[in-house]
From TrEMBL:
Entry EC no(s): 5.1.99.6
Residues binding K(+), per UniProt: 56, 127, 163
Pfam annotation, one family: YjeF_N
Gene3D superfamilies linked: YjeF N-terminal domain (3.40.50.10260)
Reaction it catalyzes: (6R)-NADHX = (6S)-NADHX; (6R)-NADPHX = (6S)-NADPHX
Record organism: Anaerosalibacter massiliensis
Cofactor binding: number and manner: Binds 1 potassium ion per subunit.
Gene name in the database record: nnrE
Top EC category: isomerase
Alphabetic keyword roster: Isomerase, Metal-binding, NAD, NADP, Nucleotide-binding, Potassium
YjeF N-terminal domain segment(s): 9-217
Entry annotated with the keyword NAD: yes
Name listed for the protein in its UniProt record: NAD(P)H-hydrate epimerase
InterPro entries: YjeF_N_dom (IPR004443), YjeF_N_dom_sf (IPR036652), YJEFN_prot_NAXE-like (IPR032976)
Family: Belongs to the NnrE/AIBP family.
């Protein structure tokens, strides 16, 4: 199976969006639907979703929307400055607000009490904080949030890559979500099967999200 670096994946994304004309929000919607497909909806009814403000977080918000539409109990938390969020994150954030789906913001240590309460009453945690572009150490409130997630006994599903894992090397960037399952999108990320990646990714499933072959070939040749 083809393994890609973060730069290669970014190049493939850009080719899909800019050269072919597939809107990023379409790819995000496809990703969300594939993630929901991999959840046992007969077994799980209560979810805690923790999203960042990039495209990985946008995936998580879209997943939350679909689970809510299916009448599942969903608590959605956002960590990070939404004013600096990606365009497609912003679209899904606005949709949730228009649907009157509550969004909880993790802005300080006190907010982790509400996160802990949600986790204690839920069955599954969905991790969509950081995506493949992460290269810095995870510190501060992000570190505390991931620690809260990892201390639970809940099943953890990570979107694309466990938050805190270097997508290229499999190195843990100070701390990392320890997932039971990772749904990685379109192509296998190198870091999932290198070094500590195997330990933190759990079961790895690759799901396609509608990227055409020409975009993948062009992106892989770029780097």
């Amino acid at each position: 199976m083809e393994k890609v670096s973060s730069k290669q994946m970014n190049s493939i994304d850009n080719f899909c969006i800019k050269a072919i004309g597939i809107p990023g929000i379409v790819l995000m919607e496809n990703a969300a639907l594939k993630i929901v497909k991999n959840i046992d909806l007969d077994k799980y009814d209560k979810f805690t979703i923790i999203s960042g403000v990039g495209n990985n977080g946008g995936d998580g918000l879209a997943v939350g929307r679909h689970l809510s539409i299916l009448d599942k109990n969903v608590d959605i938390f956002v960590i990070g400055d939404v004013r600096k969020g990606s365009k497609d994150f912003g679209t899904n954030y606005s949709i949730l607000r228009n649907m009157n789906i509550p969004i909880h913001h993790i802005l300080g240590i006190e907010d982790l009490k509400y996160l802990q309460k949600s986790i204690d009453s839920s069955q599954m945690i969905i991790d969509s904080i950081f995506g493949t572009g992460l290269s810095r150490k995870v510190e501060g409130l992000f570190e505390r949030t991931i620690s809260t997630m990892n201390k639970s006994n809940n099943y953890i599903l990570s979107v694309d890559i466990p938050s805190g894992l270097n997508s290229d090397t499999g190195e843990v960037l100070n701390t990392c979500v320890k997932a039971d399952k990772t749904i990685t999108l379109q192509l296998l990320k190198k870091g999932l099967v290198l070094n500590e990646g195997k330990k933190y990714s759990g079961e790895i499933i690759v799901e396609t999200i509608g990227m055409p072959k020409i975009a993948i070939e062009k992106g892989l040749r770029t780097f």
